[in-house]
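Standup notes, protein team

Yesterday: finished cleaning the Undibacterium macrobrachii set.
Today: Response regulator structure.
Blockers: none.

Input for Response regulator:
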Amino acid sequence: MAKTVMVVDDSASVRQVVGLALRGAGYEVIEGIDGKDALGKLKGQKVHLIISDVNMPNMDGITFVQEVKKLPMYKFTPIIMLTTESQEGKKLQGQAAGAKAWVVKPFQPAQMLAAVSKLILP
């Protein structure tokens, strides 16, 4: 059975590029347009990994990670931040919230898939 990855980004083009790479590698993909939308879509589904942007309207990525980690079912779900932010301060905030990796845009799909395969839950 295919593993499910949630992609959260307010940019449709980023969701498309990431989604294509993931589907091409055999993953199922759920898309969220921001943290609030993504939280609503989690609803007890098995998600093996989450890839989230940092800067989004309604609920930013750091807040989203904090909210996900409060949910017992997703407490251990690995989260990769995919963002234009390369500042150390933001990275530390992301790690403190529970993010496992930080991929800076523009990214190479192969680099992102390598991070996904390393971190995804069995």
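Follow-up from PR in the comments: The chain has five helices and five strands.
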